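Appendix C: a fully annotated inverse folding record. The material below is reproduced so that readers can follow the format used throughout the book. The structure is listed first as tokens, followed by the designed sequence.
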């Protein structure tokens, strides 16, 4: 899937790293139904591409990562009001076990918070501001259902119930929701350094571990251990499971092939 300059969602692959860019800077990269449709296509493509090992999600420009759902677009489509689109889950990366990094280059509000929430690692520019504003506008936010997996309850309530306020990138870091805060000119460099580290790790092991952490969060401990043990049987017989210990013994970087 080549990068295109006019598309509202850009997709670029460098080696095994995919960079996905929301490209509606004139609307602060807000989520229109057209953009959501493109996300469905892009996430499916990333999932299916065995040569794509890690993704970075960001927004065009320096002002906004994503300002949420495009309420102007919504109002124009539904003059009568009262009908919010029934969105399919596939437009955000649910149950994709490859690692996904959010490079938050500005506002991450409402649906923009959701897009960052759906990623595994969040790196924010110092000027970025974040929040969930649905309560302010009386809009649904069903996707906060698992927010307490990423924030403690007090912080989740602060973000969700006081939706008329935004927090800084530094505050999000203090809450433990953002992994790193950097100057805006270093944002993509930092995100790429995290992504490049993935290229030297066992891809099957990485995906197993991500799936284990997400799925087992809600399981009783014994059930979680049993699930994890069963899942990791997929490492048996791989060339990579031989390559890893061999590289360690030979004091070199492993050359994993995901087979």
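Designed amino acids, in order:
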């Amino acid at each position: 899937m080549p990068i295109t300059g006019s598309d509202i969602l850009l997709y670029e692959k460098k080696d095994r790293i995919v960079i996905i860019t929301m490209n509606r800077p004139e609307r602060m990269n807000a989520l229109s139904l057209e953009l959501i449709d493109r996300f469905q296509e892009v996430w499916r493509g990333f999932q299916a591409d065995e040569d794509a090992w890690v993704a970075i999600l960001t927004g065009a420009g320096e002002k906004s990562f994503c300002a949420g759902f495009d309420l102007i677009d919504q109002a124009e489509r539904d003059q009568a009001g009262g009908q919010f689109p029934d969105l399919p889950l596939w437009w955000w990366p649910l149950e994709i076990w490859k690692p996904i990094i959010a490079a938050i280059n500005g506002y991450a509000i409402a649906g923009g918070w959701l897009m960052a929430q759906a990623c595994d690692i969040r790196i924010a520019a110092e000027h970025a501001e974040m929040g969930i504003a649905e309560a302010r506008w009386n809009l649904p936010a069903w996707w906060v259902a698992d927010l307490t997996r990423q924030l403690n309850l007090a912080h989740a309530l602060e973000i969700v119930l006081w939706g008329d306020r935004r927090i800084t990138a530094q505050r999000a870091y203090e809450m433990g929701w953002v992994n790193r805060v950097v100057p805006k000119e270093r944002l993509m460099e930092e995100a790429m350094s995290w992504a490049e580290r993935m290229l030297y790790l066992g891809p099957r092991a990485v995906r197993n571990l991500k799936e284990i952490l997400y799925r087992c969060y809600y399981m009783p401990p014994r059930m979680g251990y049993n699930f994890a043990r069963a899942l990791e049987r997929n490492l048996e017989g791989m060339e990579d499971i031989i390559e890893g210990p061999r590289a360690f013994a030979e004091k070199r970087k492993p050359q994993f092939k995901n087979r």
